[in-house]
Amino acid sequence: MDTNAELADMHLAYGAANCSGPAAQRLYAERYPMRRIPSHNFFARLHQRLAETGSFERADMVRVRTARTPAVEQNVLQHVERNPRTSTRSVANSVGVSHCSVWRILREQDMHPFHVQRVQTQQPEDYAPRVAFAQWYFGKCATNPLFPDEVLFSDEASFTREGIFNTHNDHIWAVENPHAIRRRAAQI
Description:
The chain is 48% helix and 11% strand. By secondary structure, it is mainly α. Strand 3 (159-160) and strand 4 form a beta hairpin. It comes from Trichonephila clavipes (Golden silk orbweaver).
């Protein structure tokens, strides 16, 4: 970090060199051989800073938030509170900011998109057939120990009579996992 006196000497060298950065760099190096020699571009930037701000000090480079105002953040949080199953893109469209801003706002509030677990609806009349199937299965396993290797069980069905269910789009925004479930109709 250069002192104000050193910066003033650099500015004087820039003026003496007719506002030429490379010439100012050579002149400054001749006059002050024991000092750090800045790049030739620094002399022009120093002159511009002095002309614009009236000071050698750098202006604080604080970026003014245009999209993420406190009002916008409050709107985003209210929208998610009213409908925790919403998407960041839906919130972004209704509030008028980018979905990345919505993500940042929610993350700063320690909110996460927790996935909803699919479960099959169980009716009282389902109990007897399920017990019968389990007994049949255990009977088959008793007579043929390799029977489980011949059966393919899967819970990866991606469509039902109710339509396609995409688990990637079904989530709930919350600070803690609500362990939400979504009951779906029984399979036939």
